[in-house]
Amino acid sequence: MKRIYVEEKWCLACRLCEYNCAFANSGKDDMVKALKGAKIHPRIRVEQAGGISFAVSCRHCRDPLCQRACISGALSLKDGQVHIDENKCVGCYTCIMVCPYGAIMPSEKGAVQKCDLCMQNHNGEPACVAGCPNRAIVYEEREDEPCAM
């Protein structure tokens, strides 16, 4: 299955992945109108440690700890992707605490949020991948699947 992978050696820490993600999930068709002057809430974030930059996003694990820990059943695994039902989420943040990658975060709506691959917005390619100028974020199939438990 195709997944998002990060090539940290190519990451410039430009944060364009964050802006593209926030725009893709804004529901608006103009990036300037969607993001200018607004506090963005991307589902991916750039971290920097020891001179290395890298994007953190959901890895859509095959056996997700977040789903197993969810007390309300808001997280489900469908077609190899971890989905959040915002109507079921009670905001306990247990999933945030158990995610080994730090890829789940509180949303502005009270529920949690994480990468949903937003492929409907960019012709089958997630917005963060499409917006990365240096191809530090790729969407491809690899033999070494993340979170294989």
Task: Report on the architecture of this protein.
By secondary structure, the chain is an alpha+beta fold. It has one domain: Alpha-Beta Plaits (2-Layer Sandwich). The protein has 5 helices and 8 strands; from the N terminus they run βααββαββαββαβ. The strands form 4 sheets. It has a two-stranded antiparallel sheet. It is globular and about 40 Å long. The chain starts with a strand and ends in an 8-residue tail after the last strand.
Topology at a glance:
Blueprint: E1 2-6, H1 16-24, H2 31-35, E2 45-49, E3 52-56, H3 65-69, E4 75-78, E5 81-84, H4 94-98, E6 105-106, E7 112-113, H5 127-130, E8 137-141
Antiparallel strand pairs: 1-8, 2-3, 4-5, 6-7
Class by helix and strand content?
Answer: alpha+beta
Straight-line distance between termini? 16 Å
Q: Helix coverage percent of residues?
A: 10-25%
Strand arrangement in the largest pleated sheet? 1-8
Order of helices and strands: EHHEEHEEHEEHE
Short characterization:
This protein has 149 residues and is α+β, with helices and mostly antiparallel strands. The protein has helices spanning 16-24, 31-35, 65-69, 94-98, 127-130; strands at residues 2-6, 45-49, 52-56, 75-78, 81-84, 105-106, 112-113, 137-141.
Notable traits:
globular; 19% helix; 5 helices; two-stranded antiparallel ribbon; alpha+beta; two-stranded antiparallel sheet; 8 strands; 21% strand; Alpha-Beta Plaits
